[in-house]
Predict the 3D structure of the following.
Amino acid sequence: MFKKVLIANRGEIALRVIRTCKEMGIKTVAVYSKADEESLHVRFADEAVCIGPAPSNKSYLQIPNIIAAAEITNADAIHPGYGFLSENAKFSKICSDHNIKFIGASAEMINQMGDKATAKATMKEAGVPTVPGSEGIIPDFETAEKLAEEVGYPVMLKATAGGGGKGMRAVWAAEDLKKAWDSARQESAAAFGNDDMYMEKLIEEPRHIEIQIIGDQYGKACHLSERDCSVQRRHQKLTEETPSPFMTDKLRKDMGEAAVKASEYIKYEGAGTVEFLVDKHRNFYFMEMNTRIQVEHPITEQVIDYDLIREQILVAAGVPISGKNYFPKLHSIECRINAEDPFNDFRPSPGRITTLHTPGGHGIRLDTHVYSGYVIPPHYDSMIAKLITTAQTREEAINKMKRALDEFVIEGIKTTIPFHRQLMDHPDYIAGNYTTKFMEEFEIQEEN
Ligand code: MV4
């Protein structure tokens, strides 16, 4: 088992990993930027190394500084969390070249799943349902035109180096294809240095339902059921829940088996998430595979009483998984609390928290690194807390979330708490009747 783990991240996920390491008797090393000197993850870790100034590209993304921190503290493993370097193949490779265990996917796996057309072709070989469309990359516009006629409009153009919606264009008619093709390739070249595109039949008003999987070093994988992440704004998840209100026992069984089949086919090691698009007829299609722990992992932990970070560490240390699949016994909802102003287009609202009162009581979990007097820096992602409620039924979990949001007081900055409070009163949300289109119609009401 590892003696000392360096957490190459910040905020709530750094704290999350440190907590599990402490429970496992593993020493911890925090890395931090100058702007994070007063952060809790620095205080909670056994050791802490400053790796640079505030900007991410000079600190949390600086591979040499992080490797140096691991060398001087003699860490034998690095947990990357999510975001930053968690899906950076070069970082994974450099860790293994330095005999430091990267608690995540191998460089090969990151590259294979990071290239969306390759990931999709691999899943198709594995027998996982994929959206009808091109066989891999489209060589030129003429081929795209012909293919779109065969597939039938509407189609979706996607950048193979993309993900999370970047370099993606929905095309409803032939006369719009050329403009979409050019702008998608331009966007992808600018964002990823790669403008290769592939095409799919457009799935209208899909739900985003993902399956948590865990694979060990011996080729075994199991699934830990689903999370419904359809409530998103500009490809940013706002709230997630498990079980999905759209799920049926058969659909869960079929999606779980597809996710396990995919993971065992690619010999996936570690915690991973297989994302699916689900249409209104409950057909499901592979979308993407994430090779990292996800922000929303706590709702899965809550309904199956499981510590996913602990499982990641055990698998990385070579411990075989139990192999049994898990099905939710409870209902859990997560609301991402961001330092943003929902009454002003969700614009960021960094600054000092002058008053903080956190919710508590039965079925309430709050994963956060903030404290009264803490200054939210402007340099990083705006998420400051994850409020998670768990109960026997969805209705009770929603009621608990309403009560917890009413108790949650953060002054000195704006937050998305009022948005989530209104969401919990929305009839379509309460009815579980929402797709990835939901936020396009949601209108926040001005507070009195
Ligand atoms: C799609 C789609 C409809 N049809 N693919 C969004 C980012 C990336 N995960 C893929 N995405 C989509 N792919 C086909 N063939 C609709 C989306 C999509 C979406 C998917 C999940 C969650 C939110 C979304 C918001 C807009 C579009």
Summary: The radius of gyration is 22 Å.
